[in-house]
Amino acid sequence: MAMWNPWRGCRKYSEGCKYCYIHKGDLRRGIDTNEIVKTDKFYAPVAKNKAGDYKMKPNQTVYLCFSTDFLIEDADRWRGECWQMMKERADLHFIFLTKRIERFMNCIPADWGDGYENVTVGCTVENQKQADYRLSLFRNLPVRHKNIICQPLIGEVNLSSYLRGVELVVAGGESDKNARPLDYDWVLKIREQCVGANVHFQFRQCGTHFIKDGKMYTLAVRDLCSQARKAGIDF
After folding, report:
1. DSSP E strands: which ranges in the chain?
2. Strand pairing partners for 111?
């Protein structure tokens, strides 16, 4: 596994961004998250050592733009080079998430066709409103590998109409002292939808405020992922 952030910075875009961890971390460090800037890791996938070998080892997953959005408007002038690097590094598998799926067709390279085999696109939704809007677009896009990311999940969501062609659905709660609660019943319903459609499902993390069997629990951030794993409901 490798991380690649060719730029940093983002702007809050919808309800799910309210307690964004990127903005919180930048605030603590005195960084303006709204300023989108190119990083010194821009060429990381094609950087080579003195022997002429790629520094980024082959046959691994590369998590792209997990501190921003790959389709953000400010990066339009840089994205073309990134597509070229992804094409060159066919020995790596790249995955990025986006809340800006409506921009997808305006952001792909000319040779995209039905999609690059080594690229997975994850469409992020947080409630039914965003699911219906974004996924109605996402299901018709030419993408070889599609994931749906319901994190932070802030309301009950029915994905049944949107699961065809999807490889993985991820569900998870919000991590913040003021976080909106995650109801475990919402997670179980999404899992049931995935099982019915034979789509892989992963419960990624509980919410700081977590409802189970009608009772509210407050969990430490460090325990959110481990508690989700203990549920044992991945499919």
Report:
1. 2-4, 7-8, 37-38, 61-64, 93-98, 119-124, 145-150, 166-172, 182-183, 200-205, 209-212, 215-218
2. none
The residue ranking higher by pLDDT, 18 or 186, is 186
Structure tokens at 155: 């309301």
Over its C-alpha atoms, the chain yields an Rg (Å, rounded) of 18
What's the pLDDT tens digit per position in 127-138?
999 999 999 999
Query: How are strands ordered across the β-sheet holding 215-218?
Result: 182-183, 209-212, 215-218
Per-residue pLDDT tens for 30-79? 888 889 999 999 999 999 999 999 999 999 999 999 999 999 999 999 99
Give Dmax (Cα) for the chain: 60
| Alpha carbons 7 and 14: distance in angstroms, whole number | 21
Token digits of residue 149:
């990311």
Alpha carbon of 228 to those of 71, 206, 207, 218, 233: distances in Å?
A: 29, 6, 9, 14, 8
How far from chain centre, in Å, is Cα 23? 16
Question: What pLDDT, in 10s, does the model give residues 57-70?
Answer: 999 999 999 999 99
Nearest to 183 by CA among 159, 215, 142, 158: 215
pTM score of the predicted model: 0.94
CA–CA distances in Å: residue 63 to residues 70, 180, 222: 11, 27, 21
